[in-house]
Amino acid sequence: MTRLKKGPAEEAAKAMKTMNPFLSGSDPQERVGAVAMMLRSTMKNPAITAKAASRIASDSAKIMMGRSDRAADPRDRRFKDSTWSENPFYKRGMQAYLSTQEHLNDWVANLSMTELEHARAKFLTSMITDALAPTNTLLGNPAASKKMMESGGVSLLKGLKNAYTDITKNGGLPSQVDKRPFQVGKNLATSRGKIIWKNEMLELIQYEPTTDKVHRTPILIVPPQINKFYAMDLSPAISMVQFLMAQQMQTFVVSWRNPRKEHAHWGMSAYVDSLIQASEVIRNVTRSKKVNIAGACSGGITAATLASLFAAAGDDRINSLTFMVCVLNPQREDSELGQIVSDQSLEVARKYSRRKGVLKGDDLARMFAWMRPNDLVWNYVVNNYLMGEDPPPFDILFWNNDSTNLPAQLHSDYLDMGLNQPFSHPGEFEVAGHAVDLSKVTADAFVVGGLTDHITPWKACYRTTQLLGSQNIEFVLSSSGHIQSLLNPPGNPKAKMFRNSDIPADADTWAAQAKEEAGSWWPVWGQWLKDRSGTLKAAPRTCGNETFPALYEAPGRYVFDD
């Protein structure tokens, strides 16, 4: 990435750098260094250490004598079994663990270290204490012990079999989903459509209309490069593709190819060039001068770069933009990982992917899992190994585990974008062959964030509203996490959202004035698109046209690449 001119915020931007989890690397030397720093700080602050030890000892005495009223958080699923409150032995074990965890966290918080060192120390301490939870062992987990006794040891044997399978076939991580019931093209990604154009990087899917008439302006969905496209078309009940077609939208979706080592040179410029070509095909096939563009997660970063490029060229083909759970200008406080990365760790990550040609999907999945170890690692250790149960069959988790690689050049480009913050510094940096500047993008925009999203926090998603030059922007806050906010069809009785037609500069100000509404954001978005997609016309009888004839059936071939 080339800097075009020097701005006054250069050092501030450098200090605030961070990455979303899929953009970063982890340097083992820095983890060792964090431990060393904790030890040095301990030696410099003996009084703090002594105070923490005294508190642990005092609490331990109360616990041993049965005088402690310490209890687990009701939301902590690890200690829901009644044995933890009824059995004195287990109750004391739980209280001792919770006490130690609390005082260790307080001890780390009081050590004299820099902000970065504190973040790393906190992260490491959390990982260690989570791993040492008594529920992660057979003897320390009453439910697992009961299961072993009741099954005559069968549950333990099955757990050992599951562990062996994961070690040999799942990279050592516990399986999160039973994949056997699912098959792409059979019970996932089943919407009827055709591949009407392809290059070495993507297949362009046009879906067969399900209504007699369709809106004249089509929509193109740009999925993230780190997952396969069929999140947009899982089972019919939660298919965004089928929802859009029911709204009379001409629907197109990109299916990215899973890159291999020989594709290491694929970078942001190549991905944007492929989208330009895809948009030309869509305009030719639909006879529409304009196209609605929707980008999800990292696909939104690519879509934003595309929009900036078109704006710089004076090309107004983008009719509207939708950004779904997407952060364009990440900041350090956005995520736990963002708080612990450094220049060195980012360069280690860059060199690693360059050496390998790609950042492997398995490595990305492992990094995601260890960001939330209780939910994504230890929960499945208990279920699969200690309880001897198979993980549940769940279509969303099946898709989430069907991960893809990230080519080295795109990985490097993302690292540069995170470091330089080009979207926050309009006109200062060159991305994909142009001076990126979203303030020149004037198309109407719809932005969606997830209230409990830990990957792309909603306040970070909200910042997109301040980057665009659009006069008409809608921001909707869904009440779910990252994937659940994206896949949020009508009919869910628990679904709700927050809306505010005003778009102030500050996310907290927006939230203070937002009103809660029951239901999914999809119908709101669907009507928003319909209002901007022109009049209705007769639906095409076939996919493609004479210039771009249908090549083969959806979901295509790239989706099956390992």
Write the layout of secondary structure elements.
Elements lengths: L1 E2 L6 H6 L12 H17 L1 H19 L18 H4 L1 H23 L4 H17 L10 H9 L3 H16 L23 E6 L3 E6 L5 E3 L3 E4 L17 H7 L4 E6 L11 H19 L4 E6 L1 H15 L5 E7 L18 H14 L1 E2 L1 H11 L1 H14 L8 H7 L4 E2 H13 L8 E3 L2 E2 L8 E7 L7 H5 L10 E6 L3 H5 L9 E4 L7 H7 L1 E4 L3 H9 L5 E3 L13 E2 L9
Parallel strand pairs: 5-6, 5-7, 7-8, 8-13, 13-14
Antiparallel strand pairs: 1-11, 2-3, 2-18, 3-6, 4-17, 9-10, 11-12, 14-15, 15-16
Helix pairs in contact: 2-6, 3-5, 5-6, 8-14, 10-11, 12-16, 13-14
Verbal overview:
The chain has helices at residues 10-15, 28-44, 46-64, 83-86, 88-110, 115-131, 142-150, 154-169, 240-246, 268-286, 298-312, 343-356, 361-371, 373-386, 395-401, 408-420, 458-462, 482-486, 507-513, 522-530; strands at 2-3, 193-198, 202-207, 213-215, 219-222, 251-256, 291-296, 318-324, 358-359, 406-407, 429-431, 434-435, 444-450, 473-478, 496-499, 515-518, 536-538, 552-553. It has 562 residues and is of the alpha/beta class. The protein folds into 2 domains: 21-150, no CATH class; 193-337 and 429-560, Alpha/Beta hydrolase fold, catalytic domain (Rossmann fold, 3-Layer(aba) Sandwich). The protein has an 11-stranded mixed β-sheet, sandwiched between helices. A 3-stranded antiparallel β-sheet has the order 1-11-12, with helices on one face. The chain is globular. Mean pLDDT is 89; it is low at 5-26.
